[in-house]
Predict the 3D structure of the following.
Amino acid sequence: MFTYFKMKKMQWRVKIALYDAVLGFMDNKRDIMNTAKKLFDSVKDVPAEDIRDEFIGKLAEIVHEEAEANKINSKAKMSK
């Protein structure tokens, strides 16, 4: 009987680890989609010949803004 409970406990740990991995993947996917949407919205009115330069510039701006937001969030978490 003790072995059964021990097995069930291990089974729950495996399930939790699997669910956490799936949730992490979904969060990353959501972040990527949001970044792509912001990028598209920022360059949709740009002529085709300028799109490459504009794309690189806007991507750099978006990454910088997200890095600053993450830095602020991590500092806020550390101060708690």
Remarks:
- The helical segments are 2-43, 51-79.
